[in-house]
Write a structure and sequence with these properties.
GO terms for molecular function: catalytic activity; iron-sulfur cluster binding; metal ion binding. By secondary structure, the chain is of the alpha/beta class. Helix content is about 40%, strand content about 10%. The longest helix has 27 residues. The structure holds iron/sulfur cluster.
């Protein structure tokens, strides 16, 4: 399987792009993790991977989206991006996830990539703006991998994304990328309407046939102004999704990403572990893209190094999130997050000004944490990579105790409770504030 994957990388993509990926994302990406670990040992903090939403606008209106896509356009301009990227690179970072809205609606996006040839960019996109010409330019630049979202079969996808023709246009974007031999990815936010169609071996085979090199399964997050909780996966479905990913990694010549588990199958949250944080189109520094609260901004006068190192809000968030669950705090404990944000008087970073109200209305839901049902990696390559570079960096050892975890109760039953879990206890979690330090 590894040989088939290597053969695909060499024959189906541009070798220059593979070399750039290996250097900028492979070597330098791992080096950024080493630097992150050294900082943690010294009691310092700067996340090795940053996700940056460069623009709020989008041409689609997807169900469950949390971004104010219809609000007045706001974007991070070239000067602010230069400053942000240069400061992060000075800390040893080399990889940046680029989100939106729809990132390709940012008129200067390609210029930004061109100005930072020593960094690697993964662009989360619907693919509609990737024409043959844009794909050619991405190939020339060499430091970008498009990650195109497909949210179901044609009918489902178009319903999920708010209008007809969305699916075929995204497929066209993928074809433009693969025809130009880009290292192309496809991502899916797994939910009730696409679970049966896309968590399938035949879908993985189809991606390989199309020349797609990697795929990323997210799990649908119940957030935003229209959270659509009926779309969320059950704990059993999340468990089956994890098993599927682990099996397919050993079988198919395509890389498969999931960002919620370590090498031994223990659940984790990349924001709680400090692996990543997020910058909004307005410059707000948020724990992660769906947690729209902040106390700091990239537009503050302090250098980013100081902001991340000294942010009591982000530190407190990591401790609270890691102390309450190994899964996703906004799914499992919106009440704690709500209390934390209020106590710390965090700014609601949405334009709609409703982030607090949305949290008030969120019910508790199960997330990737399903104790007793861990699925360890079977592929030695993923196992090794995760052991070295994708784990909890000690966050759960320091903060998490199973006895303080609260399973999700539906109709009077704990739907994700491990058989070994003690009877429900009253939570003793204390909500930290800046004043506690
Ligand atoms: S809080 Fe939830 S959505 Fe945010 S990074 Fe953690 S697991 Fe993902």
């Amino acid at each position: 399987m590894y040989l088939r994957l290597a053969k695909r990388a060499l024959l189906e993509t541009d070798k220059r792009l593979v070399a750039k990926f290996a250097w900028l994302m492979g070597y330098k990406g791992l080096r950024s993790v080493v630097k992150h670990k050294s900082r943690l040992k010294r009691g310092e903090f700067f996340p090795p991977f940053l996700y940056i939403s460069v623009i709020n606008s989008c041409n689609l209106r997807c169900q469950g989206c949390w971004v104010d896509v219809a609000a007045k356009q706001e974007k991070i301009d070239i000067a602010a991006m230069d400053s942000l990227l240069n400061q992060a690179k000075a800390m040893g970072n080399s990889f940046f996830g680029i989100l939106g809205g729809e990132p390709f609606m940012h008129a200067d996006l390609l210029e930004i990539f061109a100005r930072h040839p020593d960094a690697y960019f993964q662009v989360f996109t619907n693919g509609h703006f990737i024409t043959d010409e844009v794909a050619k330019e991405l190939r020339r630049l060499g430091n970008v991998t498009p990650l195109i979202s497909i949210e179901g079969s044609e009918i489902i996808s178009d319903e999920r994304r708010g209008r007809g023709g969305v699916y075929s246009k995204s497929i066209e974007g993928i074809e433009n990328c693969t025809r130009n031999k880009l290292l192309t990815g496809v991502c899916t936010s797994l939910c009730q309407t696409n679970y049966d169609d896309l968590l399938q071996e035949k879908w993985i085979d189809r991606l390989i046939e199309m020349g797609v090199f990697y795929t990323w399964y997210h799990i649908y997050r119940i957030v935003g102004p229209e959270p659509n909780p009926q779309l969320a996966l059950t704990p059993e479905q999340q468990y089956q999704a994890r098993k599927f990913v682990v099996e397919m990694r050993c079988k198919k010549p395509i890389a498969i990403i999931d960002a919620y588990y370590d090498a031994d199958g223990n659940a984790l949250c990349p924001a709680a572990t400090g692996f990543t944080h997020h910058i909004s189109p307005y410059g707000d520094i948020e724990p992660c893209p769906v947690i729209q609260f902040a106390k700091e901004s990239i537009h503050d006068e302090r250098p980013l190094k100081e902001v991340f190192n000294e942010s009591e809000f982000l530190r407190g968030f990591r401790e609270l999130a890691a102390g309450s669950t190994r899964g996703c705090i906004i799914l499992e404990r919106p009440d704690l997050l709500n209390e934390y944000a209020r106590k710390n008087e965090a700014k609601d970073t949405t334009v709609r000004g409703a982030a607090y109200q949305e949290l008030d209305e969120l019910q508790t839901n199960p997330s990737q944490y399903n104790p007793g049902r861990e699925v360890p990696e079977k592929s030695w390559a993923y196992w090794l990579l995760k052991k070295f570079a994708f784990h909890d960096y000690g966050a759960y050892g320091r903060h998490f105790e199973l006895k303080n975890w609260r399973p999700t109760i539906k109709d009077g039953e704990a739907i994700n409770q491990s058989p070994s879990h003690p009877p429900l206890v009253q939570l003793e979690t204390t909500i930290p504030t800046s004043a506690d330090k």
